Amino acid sequence: MAHELSSGCQGILDCVRTMIHCCPSPLFPFWMSLARSGFGFDVQEVFVAIQDSLRHHYVWEGWGTSLCWWANFAGGLPKQDMDSVLDLLFDHAKGLGLNIVRYNIGGGANPAVDTNMRPFADIPGFRPGGPSAPYDWAADERQRKILLGAMERGVTVTEAFSNSPPFWMTISGSVTGNIGWGKDNLDPNYYDAFVDYLTTIVKHFEEAWGIHFDTINPFNEPVEGWWNIDRRRKAQEGCNFSIPTISKVLLSLQKSLDEKKISTKISAFDSWSQNTCQVLLRMEEDCLKAINQVNVHTYVNVPTKEEGAQRQKVKQRVSLLGKKLWMSEYGPLSWVGEELDIALAVGRHITLDLNDLQPSAWCYWQALEVSGSSWGLLTAPFSYEQKPFVVSLSKQYFVMMHFTRWIRPGFQIFDNASLKDTLVIASNLSGSSLVLVGTNTSNYNKDIRVDLSDLASGLAGTSVQAALFRTSAVENHVELPILYFDSPIVFVRLALKSITSIIIS
Questions:
Q1: How far is the first Cα of the chain from the last one, in angstroms, to the nearest whole number?
Q2: Which of 68, 172, 311, 432 could disulfide-link to 356, CB 3.0 to 4.6 Å?
Q3: Cβ(35)–Cβ(13) under 8 Å?
Q4: pLDDT classification of 63: cutoffs 50, 70, 90
């Protein structure tokens, strides 16, 4: 008959194993036999030693989220409830400490056509009346409230992006796409008008509200082809762009930014990583020159086939072009199963992104989702009638915390090929502190040996201590006992189905 250790016994067992690694003694054989048996219960284990030189690194810019569509809801909550959501996501002491926000410049749904939008996805446009109408700067107040609140809590990097042009600039008259698979939906007569719409908004945000957008992206999954009108399901803004149209928009956008003397840089294309290299290869030199940052989405249709994300191909191509690289959107697409399994799979996905893709930033899609969804770091009823308003923290929230709380902007992330789906290794710039985040999605424990002596100059030749935090089936970023090592050669146990942050100083 199989038995499960109680959380208390498992904690004691883990501490015993830690003692074995940290301070061998004459009692070593006894402790080892005890630990191996699991106090009488069989526990399968593997042992892995990091063999990489761990010399190569890149600098981390931060963690973020897009604001659509949840900010259009959360910005309408009573201040106390809105502040609670903002604290949980953007305050480093009280929550995740996300420091990047991607703000959606709404196209504005067509009230006569777009009648099947998903809740709060009908983002107000700033020019709903058409080409001769004035701008409505009171529009989109709710999303703007969240943006400003996030900046008050430490957000330092902002990006503006568009899911669709205003409905009156589209061929179909709908912000949800054209009729038919893969067809362009920006009317050629409005190429320049669309760009002027974006740059006018970017400039007004800076002049009126002091919000400077570091980058602007006029596309979102432009070549994937699925933005077509479908009245059978709930919809959201989206627009297909062919390669020739993308080129025209990019050049027009650069010209408009220059003419308006706006220092915001251009990012593109927010395509799936599987399509990004193809788009880049088909861009003319003048279009590539206009792009400062390449954004990719690393979704995979089948969660078990992570190699389909083609991370290394994208990294190599973008590096060859000398552009900055972001992983700008991700969520558990098509994933089913237990909440913990989905959350740990997200942690594994982040780990693969950081080790294989090596972007300078990583952004979640919809940070707050409707109750019952497998998406969302937070979940809540999207209703203003719910009193009291209750936000639930998902397992994904705590998995994200293991990364966002400890790997901060300006850190160095080291290239780790040996355990690229398990371990992220980072350090602060001074070399006085190292962070390891280990994700174990398996049904067995993993014991890992890491020689950190070459990574942090401030730790060389010294004894070190490690603070540990763990999320598992029964823990949510729980602090574990501090470990002490005589040298920077560290042994770490990653318990089965868990994620652990190890902060070494």
A1: 43
A2: 311
A3: yes
A4: very high
Give Rg (Cα) of the chain: 24
DSSP H or E stretch at residue 199: helix 191-209
Q: Determine the CATH number of domain 45-57+417-504.
A: 2.60.40.1180
The C-alpha atoms of residue 68 and residue 88 are separated, in whole angstroms, by 17
Q: In what order do the strands lie in the sheet with 45-49?
A: 45-49, 445-451, 489-494
Q: So where are the chain's domains? A: 45-57+417-504, 61-409
Give Cα separations from 223 to 22, 145, 162 (angstroms): 53, 32, 14
Helix/strand/coil for 149: helix
Among 10-14, 70-74, 311-315, 470-474, name the one with the lowest average pLDDT.
10-14
Measure the CA angle with vertex 283, ends 282 and 287; round to 5°.
175
Query: Which tokens is 217 given?
Result: 């992206």
What integer is the mean pLDDT of 2-7? 32
**Is 434 a residue whose pLDDT tops 80?**
yes
pLDDT of residue 38: 36
- Condensed to tens digits (0 to 9), the pLDDT of residues 119-129 reads 999 999 999 99
Q: What is the mean pLDDT of residues 136-148?
A: 98
**Could you read off the pLDDT of 469-501 as tens digits, one per residue?**
999 999 999 999 999 998 878 888 999 999 999
Q: CB neighbours of 42 closer than 8 A, spacing ≥ 6?
A: none
The SS3 assignment for 436 reads strand
Residue 212 scores a pLDDT above 80? yes
Q: Prior bond to 137 cis, omega within 30?
A: no
Burial class (CB in 10 A: 0-12, 13-18, 19+), 40: exposed
Per the DSSP assignment, residues forming a β-bridge with 428 are none
CA distance 127 to 112: 16
Which one is predicted more confidently, 9 or 90? 90
| pTM attached to this predicted model | 0.91
How buried is 174 (Cβ within 10 angstroms: 0-12 exposed, 13-18 middle, 19+ buried)?
Answer: buried
DSSP 178: B
Q: What is 61-409's CATH number?
A: 3.20.20.80
> Secondary structure of 248-274 in the HEC alphabet?
HHHHHHHHHHHHCCCCCEEEEEEEEHH
Gap between the Cα atoms of 242 and 279, Å rounded? 10
Both tokens of 57, joined, read: 């690194």
Give the span between the Cα atoms of 212 and 157, in whole angstroms.
Answer: 9
Q: Are 293 and 324 in contact (CB under 8 A)?
A: yes
